[in-house]
Every structure is written in structure tokens, then in C-alpha cells.
Amino acid sequence: MPTRKRTLKPNAQQTEDDLARKYFHHELAVSRVSALSKVLIGLIIVVATFFFTKFYIYAKVEVITMVSASNNYSRFYYEVPCSKDYQEERKLFKDCVPKRCGRVVMDSVVTKQEARKLLRIVRNAMVLGGSNGGASILDLHTGAISKGNAFINIFKALESHPEPDQILTAEDFMIYKKVKDKIHSAVAAEFEVPKDKLYLTKPTFFSRLTTKPAKTIHDEYWHPHIDKETYGSFHYTSLLYLTEYMEDFRGGRFFFIDKDTNRTVEPVTGRLSFFTSGSENLHFVERLKEGARYAITVSFTCDPEKAIGDPRLK
């Protein structure tokens, strides 16, 4: 008689264990797919941002040189309609909040000699700092200076330096204040704001841009942005250029992004450019192709609670 194979019926515990293993492997697979999806979505966003920046900002719209490096401007003014960014503040700071909005360039407010002195200050300071990437900053108000992939305090670094007077001096702070006061007066006069209602605010800083690849998000200076959104306290932004387009560097032009046109400002040593900080002045800095671009950003607010004092040697 043939022998019949006996089929063992699994008990309840075995069935639960099998189901648990199947569920675990299913959830693991789903988890892996989910993680992969997140990575793919992230890559798509990065690629989309790249193509938007490269092809929309640079190619889709016309680029007009608004202010050329080859010309000298006693006063250049380009008016733009004010955005709605200031509506809630008009009652709080009615004497200061922009009544008209625009972009201004002046080549006669700061002398080339004063600009070169400021350039010497930031170059000397960068002996103690410097980013691993393409953007370095120096903030004399807080002491922050780029170092590697982070920031250090330059005043603390000077304590251990054998010759601190070779880096920063009291005279350096005097020239910094003198230039800042000139810029303050120019902005207040142009936008018809009482000078005592317009306050220096943070961050106000020197910048050095080079062609080094970005190492951190702080190195990616080329992204379009709105100062009032990025910094909060800004109502008026000014930039003083310390080096010259096509002489000291290539690339590095300042772009205002308008609806159908990008308008550029070409940096010149001693050139002061300033504008209202709302979304009417969306902008970015063109990536450098060669050399080093130095500038100083001096920012102003209408809010006395956001005011900062002049820096001093500590």
C-alpha cells in the first residue's frame, strides 16, 4: 500500500509569525520606495531650480545694462511701482516708509580713495578668515567673519594675533563711519526721509566673492531674493562697490529682475547703488567667472527697535 504524505497544518502561532514577517518586508519595501521617492522629488526640485535660474532668468527675458561701468553717474534714478510690502507699516513709520520706490546709482557720494581704504580693511581682515567656498563676509558690528565652512569672531582672533594693529585700527573704524554717514545722508535725501527717522540695521557687512565652488548655503550668493523678506528689518538697501567690473573681476553684475527684462548694474570702485528693499526690487548677483569682487552692504530700517550703533574696535 502506498504511503501517504502527511501535510502538517500550521498552528496559530506559526501563521501569525509568517504574517508578521510578510508585513515587515512589505513595510520595509514601501519605506524604501517612499525614501527613494523623496530623494527623486528633491533632485527634481534642484534640477528645476537650476533650469529656472539658468534659462528663465538669463535667457527668457531681455537683459539691459541699466548702469554701465564705462559711464560716470552723478545721479541715476529708475522708478518702480511700490509693492504692497509696506502697507501695514505706513501708520507705524509714516515719515520713513517708502512713498515712492526705485533704484538709485551715484558715483560721487564716496570717493575712490575712501573706497580703496575700505578695500584695504576687508583684505587685511581676510588674513584671519576666508570661506572655503566662493563667498566670505566681514561684519564689523558683530565681529563675524567667514572662516572655512563657518564663522569666527575677528575680535577674539585679534587677541592672539602677534600684530593686531596690522589687521584693524581705530582709523579703520573712523573711515567706515565716515562712509556710512555719507550713504545714510544720500539715502535719506533721495527718498525724502528725515535722517533721524532712518536707522542703520543689521546685517551690514563687507563681502568678497570669488570663483570657488560653493561649500555651504552661505556661498550660494546668486539666488534671486527680496531683502525685506530675507532680512525682515530692511526698508532701504545700499551697496558700495570696492572693486571694478571687467578690471578686477568678470561676472558679478547686479541684476534687478523685472517682469519682462533684467536690468543690470555694473560695479565700479566707489559706486553707490541703493534701492527700496521690498518685492518691487527682486534681485540677484551674477556668478563670478574670474577674479574677486568686493563690496559693502549698508542697510537701513524705519523701525527704531531694529537699529544698531556704529561698530568700534574691541
Automatic annotation (TrEMBL):
It comes from Owenia fusiformis. It comes from the Eukaryota. GO terms for cellular component: membrane. Its cofactor is L-ascorbate. Pfam families: 2OG-FeII_Oxy_3. Keywords: Dioxygenase, Iron, Metal-binding, Oxidoreductase. The lineage of its organism: Eukaryota, Metazoa, Spiralia, Lophotrochozoa, Annelida. GO terms for molecular function: dioxygenase activity; iron ion binding; L-ascorbic acid binding; oxidoreductase activity, acting on paired donors, with incorporation or reduction of molecular oxygen. This is Uncharacterized protein.
